[in-house]
Structure formats: C-alpha cells, structure tokens
Specification:
By secondary structure, the protein is of the alpha/beta class. The protein is 48% helix and 16% strand. The chain has helices spanning 4-15, 32-41, 45-64, 75-79, 82-98, 113-124, 151-164, 180-183, 193-205, 226-235, 253-257, 273-276, 293-318, and strands spanning 19-23, 70-73, 102-109, 126-128, 134-136, 142-145, 167-173, 215-221, 239-243, 267-271. The chain has an 8-stranded parallel barrel, surrounded by 7 helices. α2 (32-41) crosses α3 and α3 (45-64) packs parallel to α5. 48% of the residues are buried.
C-alpha cells in the first residue's frame, strides 16, 4: 500500500495548494435555510441538527473540491451531537474521500495500552470482532495524537498506521497562547520541552520515511510561532508539519511558510472558520450572507492558495 506521506504530498502537489479545510461546524454556522429544511425532515431535533451539519459539510467540500486536497474534521464537534453526530462524521469522511480528498482526524487522542489501541482502531478503520478477526472499514487517513504519555500512548497509533498505510501527526508546538505553560518549559540541558518532543517525533518517524522523502509520522506546529517553527523545521527534516493557527487565530501566510522546507514542501496549513464562514470575513461585510457560504469558501480557498504559494516562494528566495 502507498504510504500516507506519499499520498499526502502527491495530493497537495496535484492541486498546487497546501491548504487543509478544517471542518469544525458549530450548528450556528449552518445557514438558516439548511437548518429549516432539516427541521422539517426530522422530528427529532438532534437528528435534524446533525442532518443540517452534514449538508453544510457536503456542500463546503463540493465547493472547494479541486482546490483543496485535505480536510480535517475536529471530532469533538461531532461527538457533541451524540449518535447522530457520529453518523454525520462518518458520512462527512466518506463524502470527502469520494471527492479524492485525504482526511486528517483531529482527535488529539492520548492514552496507553489497550485503550490507545482501541482509539487507533476506531479512528483509522479497524473493528475487532468476537471471533478474534478484524474487519476494516472506511475511516480517516491520519490522526492527531497527544504525546504527553510518551511512546506508550503513541505506539498503538504507529502500529495501526504501519498496518493500514495511515498517518500520525504528533502535537509538538501548538498554536494556542497558553501552550507556553508546558511546551516552553526549560529542561536541564537548556532546551525547551517542545524541542525534546520534536526529537522524539523525528526518531519515531525515521523508520517510516517513504519515497517522497517524508515520513508518515508528522508534527503539529502552530503558525502563530514562526520563530519556533524555523527551529523545529530543522529538527524535523522528514516530518510533514500540520500547521494550525492561520486565519481566524491571527497567523499570516508568511508565518505559516516558516514550516515548509527549502523546496517549499513538507507542510500543510489548516484553516477552519476562515473557510467555513468566509462569507462573514470583514471584507465581505454588507455584501454576503450565510447563504453565500459555498462561493465565499471557494473564493477564500483560492485566495489562501495564492497567499501561501507567494509566501512560500518568498521564503525560498530568502533562503
């Protein structure tokens, strides 16, 4: 089977766009027309909400198809919708993959032993059966993992990825402001903690480097910390970097570009609200409404592609 890193870089290069569409759909993001239609079709409010979110997701994915090659659903938003949300998530993943998109499960799981193994199977697509066999099912192509528990919490995901040709993105330097409380703690040798985590990620990924030159064990490094990103890029020469923090969290294309290698490869940049709710961006104030979400998302995806490509080219020129 083709390793995840090969599939990811090929998909990004095919559309010329390292953008990831983050699907973190609060029900209030869904236009009123969709919510009203779902409320008429489903007597149960929970089922109606999940159906509305699913239609919203499908139409967003259709709108950016051919421009964006990777989608990242945040599992918490679907789990909050109960059993109907689980079905919505599964249908969203299937629809994205039917369009040729790769799916990164933003689940940030972190546990040990059999529990971590169960998480890996659930997210990456294996159901253990009573007779001892395992049934594969369509699921995410990669997953985000919290390394705080050490290799005990990561190894089951690495094993699942080896069996199934999937990917893992390990949290290294996240985009949130309070990340400094732990991730920047200074170790006895003077290094910040996030650098030690990066070195472990590099070790875990080394045996899994594929033909593209990158490993299926990647790292999460926030665009809001460009200086740290430059250091981490050097420490993680074979890790694809998943970059949150662009757009609504304040990071720019130039900030995100710090995570790419000298050839302009090796990273993907997530945008959630700024794509899902592009109609609400300040530059559209008074001209667009929620009902324009599809065209607004497509236009914003095109603009983000241009901005990222230009920023990456500037970085290459400055190198």
């Amino acid at each position: 089977m083709t390793p995840f890193s090969d599939r990811l870089l090929a998909a990004v290069e095919a559309v010329g766009n390292p953008t990831v569409l983050g699907l973190d759909p609060k029900p209030e993001y869904v236009p009123a027309s969709i919510r009203e239609r779902s409320a008429k079709a489903f007597a149960d409010p929970a089922a109606a909400t999940a159906a509305a979110v699913l239609e919203f997701n499908r139409r967003l994915l259709d709108a950016v198809s051919g421009i964006v090659a990777v989608v990242k659903p945040q599992y918490a938003y679907y789990e909050a919708l109960g059993p109907d949300g689980a079905r919505c998530l599964a249908d969203t993943i299937r629809h994205a993959q039917s369009l040729g998109m790769l799916v990164i499960a933003d689940a940030k799981r972190g546990d040990i032993g059999p529990t971590a193994e169960a998480y890996a199977r659930a997210i990456l697509g294996e159901t253990p059966l009573a007779d001892g066999s395992v049934r594969a099912f369509q699921a995410a192509d990669a997953v985000t993992v919290n390394p705080y528990l050490g290799i005990d919490g990561v190894q089951p995901f690495l094993d699942a990825c080896d069996r199934l040709g999937k990917g893992v993105f390990v949290l290294v330097r996240t985009s949130n402001p309070s990340a400094v409380q732990f991730q920047d703690l200074t170790l006895e040798d003077g290094r910040p903690l996030y650098e030690a985590v990066a070195r472990r990620v590099a070790e875990w990924g080394a045996p899994r480097v594929s033909a593209c030159g990158y490993s299926s064990v990647g790292a999460v490094v926030g665009a809001t910390w460009p200086q740290q990103a430059r250091t981490l890029r050097a420490l993680l020469p074979h890790a694809v970097v998943l970059v949150p923090g662009y757009g609504a969290q304040g990071a720019t294309a130039d900030d995100a570009a710090a995570n790419f290698d000298a050839q302009g490869r090796g990273a993907v940049v997530n945008a959630s609200r700024s794509l899902m709710c592009a109609y609400a961006l300040k530059r559209h104030e008074g001209s667009l409404t929620a009902e324009d979400f599809e065209s607004a998302a497509r236009d914003e995806a095109e603009r983000m592609r241009r901005d990222l490509v230009q920023a990456i080219e500037r970085k290459k020129s400055d190198a």
